[in-house]
Design a protein that fits this description.
Length: about 160
């Protein structure tokens, strides 16, 4: 799988998992992004997704943390960064219920992407102004730990 396609897939999976529950609508959105838009490349999602889910349930918080570290180290074009946020937003809205944990995770992703608020608001459908405002405690990895280390990733299953 091409590296950027992998980032997009991990974005969707981590956004699904960040609230401690993966619902069928989120999985359906993930499959739609794969089938209709080929966002994750030509790789068969049915073969890749179980491997990713196994790692997520086995390593939990460390898996999600390593995803954010990948974002921190990578260099993305504006188009790629906007695509990452678009996938995140589509995944967050998949079940028509936006949880605060999902917004906090969106903020965590956004922190590593070099985009202005104006770019995001004008080019990523569904992003609200308050999604872009950094919480005072959200400017370091320890804040991320406080927010997401208590999620029980081991019990997550694809519906």
């Amino acid at each position: 799988m091409e590296e950027f396609n992998k980032v997009l897939l991990l974005t969707s999976v981590c956004c699904m998992a960040c609230d401690g529950e993966i619902v069928k609508e989120e999985v359906s959105t993930l499959r739609k992004l794969s089938d209709e838009q080929q966002l994750f490349g030509k790789e068969d999602l049915n073969s890749v997704l179980p491997i990713i889910m196994d790692s997520l349930t086995k390593y939990g918080y460390e898996f999600v943390k390593s995803y954010l570290e990948l974002l921190e180290k990578a260099t993305f074009s504006d188009t790629q960064a906007l695509q990452i946020l678009d996938v995140a937003t589509k995944t967050i809205y998949a079940d028509n219920k936006v949880e605060y944990d999902e917004i906090k995770f969106f903020k965590s992703i956004r922190r590593y992407l070099k985009l202005s608020d104006e770019q995001i608001l004008s080019q990523v459908e569904g992003v609200e102004d308050y999604w872009l405002n950094a919480d005072a405690q959200d400017n370091n990895m320890s804040a991320f730990e406080v927010n997401f280390s208590n999620v029980d990733y081991s019990s997550l299953k694809l519906e």
